[in-house]
Amino acid sequence: MTNRIFTLTDQDGKSSEFAVQEGTHGPGCISISDLYAKTGCFTYDPGFGATGSCKSSISFINGEEGILLHRGYPIDQLAEKSSYLELCYLLLNGELPSETEFAEFDSSIKLHTMVHENIRDFINGFRYDAHPMAMLVGTVGALSSFYHDSLDISNPEHRQTSAHRLIAKLPTIASYCYRHHRGLPFMYPDNNLGYVDNFMQMMFSVPAQDYKHSSTAARALEVMMILHADHEQNASTSTVRLAGSSGANPFASIAAGIASLWGPAHGGANEAVINMLDSIYNSGETIETTIARAKDKNDPFRLMGFGHRVYKNFDPRAKIIAGLCHELLDELGGDQPMFDLALELEQATLADDYFKERRLYPNVDFYSGIILRALNIPMNMFTVMFAMARTVGWISHWLEMHHDPEFRIGRPRQIYIGHAKRDYPG
Ligand code: ACO
After folding, report:
1. CA–CA dist 368, 324 (Å, integer)
2. What Å distances lie between residue 311 and 62, 66, 273, CA to CA?
3. What's the Cα-to-Cα distance from 50 to each of 27, 37, 278, 408, rounded to whole Å?
């Protein structure tokens, strides 16, 4: 490949050259770290829409073509052939595990599924009506006060132990946040079970009776977790990198990512989908009037679960999850008015010129809310589920950052628009 150079010329004719750095896939990036030295200016890019913040070999998205790769493997192949835990290994280590490597990884994760008894007390200290995300962000941050033996970020063994602890403990903590909220006793993890089955048992079983869930339900949850495991440099992942860039410990860095995910523009969208479907259903509004409102520029209403900042084609994750939705709801049987409504809305928008011209397709959140509801997971737990699945992505990026020879503390610049320098009165 030819080495591309961009030349920037100012009004006095002074030119500066900037090399383009190319990746394996995707657009190149103009390297501007010496921009200020050469031109006396910084760049201005609110929302970082045109800015590459790092080099990464973990995930790749092609939004135009609807492609998502993890370590080079297409998401549809991973969803069909892999397991969540195997994907965790792949994201963390870069390659799929051999049988022995997987067995070692699995037992290391199982070794760490329990939490210190005082963490259970810590969660019990939250008010009865605390939001599960509030408990999650606080508890994950608090892990750094329990596991001092793995906090030396310059030690690769410590980094790995912390990564395994986070992946292992998130389901336990997530289930405890739910159980505290519902006034149910905390269930200990059962290491005879797989990662997802264990989580479902900690969520839904009670000590008084046996618990069993359907394999379709467990597979639906597992695939949902695979689909949410990583997604390149999104807001929460970038937050983890920025927090971690100062040398913050992994538990504090992941807690920062959870805080970022909590926002409705990021992790809260699937909850918004269910609220929208509920409100359409309860108001008796038709699909036609709902779509007309979404198209009306004088009405702020938007169809939740449609469109994506990066995907301008069908979100590849949405294709997979739509199939899962059908399977799960078929198995559950009975009347599913919410899902029928969702399907009607999906079909109507796919045939509508407004949505076609703007390339607005149903996104992963359109379907994930429906699946989570079918699994009896309450709406205020939706973002917790997302955080549990995404923890491996966050920690993989945090680990990658610590291996990066170009890694520096993140410190963006600004355009100062406040008062010019002035004297204090008197
Ligand atoms: N319903 C109706 N119209 C829409 C929608 C929607 N959901 N999304 C975009 N549009 C229209 C806009 O009004 C605009 O129309 P115009 O060109 O006539 O002005 C055009 O499509 C482009 O919209 P933008 O806001 O510029 O698109 P952008 O890429 O910035 O926004 C976003 C993406 C925020 C996801 C948007 O589509 C949206 O608000 N969707 C609903 C919320 C949602 O589902 N969020 C989850 C995203 S997935 C995730 O985060 C995991």
Report:
1. 10
2. 7, 6, 18
3. 10, 21, 37, 20
Say how many Å lie between the CA of residue 328 and the centre of ligand 1: 28
Please report the sign of the dihedral spanned by the C-alpha atoms of residue 350, residue 352, residue 353, residue 359: negative
**Summary mean pLDDT of the chain:** 94
Task: Give the Å distance between the CA of 302 and the centre of ligand 1.
Answer: 7
| 397 alpha carbon, distance to own chain's centre | 12
Q: Each residue of 345-394: pLDDT tens digit?
A: 999 999 999 999 999 999 888 888 888 988 999 999 999 999 999 999 99
Residue pLDDT, tens place only, 253-302: 999 999 999 988 888 888 889 889 999 989 988 999 999 999 999 999 99
Q: Which of 116, 131, 266, 402 is catalytic?
A: 266
Is 335 catalytic? The answer is no
**Region 31-58 average pLDDT:** 96
Token duo for residue 216: 């379709």
| C-alpha–C-alpha distance, residues 413 and 408, integer Å | 14
Report the C-alpha dihedral over residues 79, 85, 88, 92, rounded to 10 degrees: -140
What is the number of residues in the chain?
426
- Is the per-residue pLDDT at 116 higher than 90? yes
- Least confident residue range of 100-109, 181-190, 305-314: 305-314
Distance in Å, CA 343 to ligand 1 centroid:
19
Q: Is position 228 annotated as part of the catalytic site?
A: no
Structure-block tokens of residue 377: 């997971």
Structure token pair of residue 209: 């009776």
Tell me, in angstroms, the distance from the centre of ligand 1 to residue 307's CA. Answer: 5
Nearest residue by C-alpha to atom 50 in ligand 1: 266
Burial class of residue 193 in the structure, from the number of CB atoms within 10 Å of its CB (0-12 exposed, 13-18 middle, 19+ buried): middle
Instruction: Give ligand 1 pocket residues (Cβ under 6 A).
Output: 266, 269, 294, 302-309, 358, 360, 363-365
Token code pair at residue 401? 């950052």
Task: Say what the pTM is.
Answer: 0.92
Which residue has the CA at smallest separation from atom 4 of ligand 1? 302
SS3 category, 77: helix
- 200 closest CA partner among 78, 377, 391, 392: 377
| C-beta of residue 311 within 8 angstroms of C-beta of residue 363 | yes
**Any catalytic annotation for residue 365?**
yes
Supply 282's token pair.
Answer: 């309860």
